[in-house]
Structures are given as structure tokens and as C-alpha cells.
Amino acid sequence: MEDTTIINFAGRDTVPDPLTDLLRKGARELLQAAIEAERAAFLAAFSERRTVDGRAAVFGSGYHPERAVQTGIGPVTVKVPKVRAKDGRPVTFRSALVPPYVRKAKSIEAALPWLYLKGISTGEMGAALKMLLGSEATGFSAKTISRLKGQWASEYDDWRKTDLSRDEWVYIWADGIYSGLRGTDDRLCVLVVIGVNARGEKHFLAIEDGVRESTQSWREVLLSLKSRGLTAPKLATGDGAMGFWAALEEVFPSTRQQRCWMHKTGNVLNYLPKRTQPKAKKMLLDIWQAETREDAHAAFDLFIDSFEAKYPKAVECLIKDRDELLTFYDFPAQHWQSIRTSNPIESAFATIRHRTKRTKGCLSRDGMLHMMFKLGQCAEKSWRKLRGFAHLAEVIKGVNFVNGIKPSNQDQAAA
User: Fold this and answer.
1) Exposure string over 30-68, b if 16+ CB within 10 A, otherwise e
2) How is the chain split into domains, by residue range?
3) Residue 20: how many CA atoms within 13 Å on its side-chain side?
């Protein structure tokens, strides 16, 4: 029986969530890139055909009008390219993926996750695209597939060398993403860093292969970012994994640390019986939703008094990062929602976790990185600026916020 990683979509007629929208955008870009690669392969077959003056006789000549292929989660628009010949011998380019008059894709709800999770990283791209458009895709050649996969690899390599010195990066979020897919040796982990610049724009800064989120792996990621021009951010947010924080202290010792409250809440609750978890979760929420640091400390102490006697491991898990869990109070209150958790990374890669199951097959590490890079590019296009981004200039200047509020000039001078 063929092994797949597919989970069926629900409510597909109305695009139920941003993750489905992300897949639809990704499908459009992937399909357009595939058609371009298809034309490149077609032109390569006529490379020796020349006009009397030695120029290429067969060449690309614009596009047909954009057309929509109807799918189970809405239309996917593409532009089919044109080809012309100058030597008087007619040629006709027909896309095997989008033949004339095709208006409806087949099995789209199965095809989209498969395109990303299987097709990009294995030799099964042809079969994946066949699921997208049915038997019409049988003419998609191995040479075209190879050209397309090489293009994604090249784009990823170029992106990893992008100059970061042109922006000042104020906040970063870091996390290790386990894809749920197994490689040849172990579960595949990707080390991800997202940054927000002085204009409030969020971008992926790193998507790198990692070894169990080790200090050495994170050190290599941060040193690479530094070599590309990243200066010490004002704040870094991540979970309690020691590897990242140890590396951060070496590479960017001046960067403040904020532990992710979502991760911390989950870790603490894991030490408690299920019957106690709802009450504990509410008490943890009271800590990080408190209006002031003083109120947060009071709620912190109440949690300790309530659970330390019976559940010391849960309390120990919480208090070991006490100071780092409350760092956000020193930054603008408008930013708290974003900097208290590593949700920007979690939400960006939820597609992989929510749409896939573990597979018996192996996904190559390079293939996984290219897949996540392509998903990341799609995700960035729909990101909004950081709420309250106008206050980033004050953070850069080193304004000392007290409980999220900028003090008066007199108070600031006294500080």
C-alpha cells in the first residue's frame, strides 16, 4: 500500500484558515515555476536550431492571458508562456501541466501537501503533479523536474547569503522545528530564526539543519547571521532549550532574553495531573497577563505556594526561568503580545505539523530545508507589520520602559 503524508482538508469551499490559504499560494508559485521550467526544457531541445544570421530560432515570447484552474480550495491562477520561431518553421509549446481548456484540477486536496512534503524532496515530483492535474501531466519530464528542483536549491543557497546589515534587527524569535518526518538517521529538525527590523517588518533570517538543537548547532547559525551583518538584537524570544541561550550568550551577549510563555506553560503542565492542569493553566495565565511586573511576581509567588508541596518539579520548572520569563515588562506594552511567545515561528510552520503524519519513508535533509524555505517565502507575503512598530525606534535608542510604558522625561532623566 502506498505511503502518503496526507490529511484531508475540511470546509474547503471557503478557505477555512490561513494555513490552507498558504498552501494555495504555494501551489500557485510552484505550478508557475514548474511551467517555466517546462518551457526552459522545451527551448533547450531547440538550442541548435538557428536563423541564417546565427541567432536562436526558437525563443520565449511573453505569456497567454492569466487563467484560473479551479481546485477544491479555490482557484489557482497561472500564466502559460508562449514560444515563437523566427526561421519560418512553426513550433507549438503546450504545457503538460496546464493543457488548453483545462479548468479544473483533480484531487487537489491531496495534491497540495504532497507537492511540498513529497514531491520537492524525492523523485516523485511527476506523480505529485499528476495528482494535481490528472493524466495530462504525464509528459512532465525528468529533465524538467531536475531543473525545477535545482532552481529551488539555488534560491535557498542565495537566500542564505543575503546581506543583513542593511537593516537594524530589533527582535528575533528562535525555535527548533521538528517536522514529524524522519530522515535516514533521526527526526529532522530545522533551526529557525525570524527577525523584525526597525520598520516593523518580519522576515526569516535563518532556516538551517540542526542536530537536536545543540549549542554547537545554534552557535553556527548565530555566527553565520553575524557574518552576514546581523548586529546584536535588543531581545531574543525562544523556549527553554539550553542550546540556543548558551550560544546567544557567546555570540550576542548584550541581547536580552525572553522565555516563551507557550512553551513554558506546556512544560509546567506536563508535571501536573490532568485534574489539576486547568487550575494551574489559569494561574500561569494570571502571571504573564498581569499589568505590571509587581503583579506578575505576586501571581508567581501564589503559584509556588499553591503547588510546591505536592508538585515540586512543576514549580522548579517554572522558577528556574523566573527573571527571563518577565523580561517583556521592560519593552513597549504594544509589543508584549508578540515578544512573550515564539508564536511567529509556530504559526508559520503549523502547516507542516497540522497537515502531515509521520511517514515510514525518508525525507532528505536538503529536501526538507528547501521545502521549509519555500513555505517560509509564502508565509512572509501575508505577514503584517509588528503592532506598535513606531515604538521600535525608542527601543533602538535604549529607552527604559517601565511595565511597558515610556516614563516621562523627568523619570527618564532620573533613570
Assistant:
1) bbbbbbbbbbbbbbeebeeeeeeeeebbbebeeeeeebe
2) 12-159, 169-397
3) 19
Residue length of the chain: 415
**Strand residues in 125-168 grouped as ranges (E):** none
With a threshold of 0.90, does the pTM exceed it? no
Question: Exposed, middle or buried by CB within 10 Å (0-12, 13-18, 19+), for 407?
Answer: middle
Q: How far apart are CA 371 and CA 321, in angstroms?
A: 34
Max CA pair span of the chain: 92
Strand ranges in 76-120 using DSSP code E only, listed in sequence order: 76-78, 81-85
- DSSP β-bridge partners for residue 56: 50
Taking the C-alpha atoms of residue 382 and residue 391, their distance in angstroms, rounded to an integer, is 22
193 φ, ψ (degrees, to nearest 5): -130, 130
Q: Can you tell me the distance from the alpha carbon of 151 to that of 188, in angstroms, rounded to the nearest whole number?
A: 23
Helices (H) and strands (E) in the chain, counts: 17, 9
Cell, residue 49: 536550431
pLDDT tens, 226-261? Answer: 999 999 999 999 998 889 999 999 999 999 999 999
Count CB-CB contacts under 10 A for residue 158.
9
- Other beta carbons less than 10 A from residue 12's beta carbon: 15
